[in-house]
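Open question from group meeting: does this chain pack into something compact, or does most of it stay loose? Before anyone orders reagents, we agreed to write out a predicted structure and look at it together. Recording both the input and the output here so the notebook holds the full record.
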Amino acid sequence: MKKLQVALLTAGLFSVGSVQASPISFDFFNAHETTEIQQTGSLSMFDDALGNLTSVTLNLLGESISSTILDNQASNGQTFSYLSQLSFFFDILGLSNNITLPAPTFITTLATTNGFATLASGTQLDLGTNTEQGAYSFTFTDPMDIAAFVGAGSFTVNCNTLSSSGFTGGGGNIDTNQVTTGACGAEVIYSYNTPTTSISEPMTLWLFGAGLFGFAAMRRFS
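Structure tokens returned:
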């Protein structure tokens, strides 16, 4: 009976819990290619041997670099505005749950006149080189969504682009000389808890007292 009481007391003095571990992340970013681009990459799944996954943050990334020169081919001056953009589209494959993303996921600006500009006949307007990054980020906290990221191996992130350019005014007489490259990447961040076992303060004191008692008994019988 005494042994049972001691066992129950000891069991009550130990507690099992969890503690927030430092997040781990995986990422990739592809090299620039001439648009339109079709790129892919992979990100590692979460190994549940590390602990209990509590949230997942997925960052989708893109970058465009574009140089643009506008040339007025008309016999008279032209007043116009110009805007050129690159739309990035992402797909996530290899997860048990489908992830719905905006289409396009995000848009970068390749070139713009920032309002109306006037260009004389036979002259050019150099809009320079523009580098712009885009990103889309989402944090998953729903248990069903989180569970989709747990497992062995990796999941796939696909990306492609569509460019668009347009004039307001200019009479259709403005030629465009544009060189554009783009690149895609992604990052996944896993936040998780690791299990812990702690000894309560009374148990610590009991163990300390038991140690002193054992030491005294050894001294007595030595």
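Observations to bring back to the group:
The mean pLDDT is 87.
Residues 201-221 form the longest helix (21 residues).
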